[in-house]
Amino acid sequence: MRKRLAASLLAASMAVMTVIGGSGVNIVSAAEKAPKSDVTLTLAMCGDGTTKESLDELLGEYTEQTGVKVETIFIASDWGNYCTKIQTMVGGGEDLDCAILAIEGVSKFIGMDIAAPIDDWIEANPELAENVINDTNPEHQKVFQKDGKTYALPFSFNNVLMHFNTDRLEEAGLELPPADWDKEMFLEYCEKLTTEKDGVKQYAVALPYGEYFCTEAWLINNNGAYMNEDFTESTINSPESVEMFQLMQDLIYKYGYAPVPEENVSAIEQLMNGQCAMGSWGRWPTANYIASDFDSVAVQYLPSFKKNQQIFGVDGIFTIASSKHLEEAKDLAGWMSQQDFAGKYLTAGNIPALNSLAQEKIDSLGLPENCEIFYKDSNTTDYKSVSAPPQYTECSYIVTTALSEILVNQADVQETLDQAAEEMNEILEENR
Asked: In whole angstroms, what is the distance from residue 368 CA to residue 176 CA?
């Protein structure tokens, strides 16, 4: 597997992947000072640039208020490779002042002193800081805190829910399952939702192939995880984790309830065209639903295999420690974290970290059915963060490689996960 891992890392480093996935206060401290028309900040965002025009337009408002210009760069990549690119840019001396950063790269950026703490900005702008702190999940805030310092404010997040094609449910004589549905009910739904139509097999569920985040959501509902909470030891081969990976394999090869995953086949498309009746994602498929005028969709919590435990990933706007304009950069990050900007910029694929804004935007859209569970309880401690060690990039490749071996090549589950745990432990050893 080490050879496969090395090959996967090389291929991933060459690949380009597309990701993504009011208070009334819209003036920050820089705006209260003399305009600084000689300052231009560089902001990095993760994505393919489809939102660049709208972002630049919104940042034009910031320039009008402060005199500070903002240039944006988009990096089309997954979060792991995005973080590597930012690290390379900073290490190479490129001018970079702010960058969006998801949980996957936070511990790495803080540990390497790439991110600058913003406690001085919070102290100087208590009202603006409280607008966010008082309206976001404390668990989300903790992601950006270390050793008593704060490095960013929560901007947006995602959880993982089961999405249903409601036409397929109706055809099978089923209703949306209850919030506390368990493994037994899940398998009953799978049995009834696996059928044949016009000579073509229709499956019950699309499995989270290649999805580090979504796969761990299945694990934690079975008391499993990729690693322990301090990121010092892998638990991917624990009995609880093995049981869930085995179930995923069995859904394909034992029960015939799920198709064999294919690299270039979109599971979201399979849900919309009815080939699969269920799939597990965050809110990001909502953008696909809107673009395809698809509204026969509902969401529910994942089955409680052993418990009902939600997972989350969160991002924030970080200030780069090497910025030549730290004060202005922190002001920009604080301005972008406010409801006025977030409400205009965040799309249907995101869940705003601000609870009031999440409720407003998700309820007004009303899609999918039962969409309130995207934000319900999002201000509580019921959420568990995805495993995101400083070595996230390396660990995520180990996980997705093992998942591919299990789901595509039908490898022995225990043996594959034992090997994955061994490789992961070699990497996590430096955290001990």
From this structure: 12
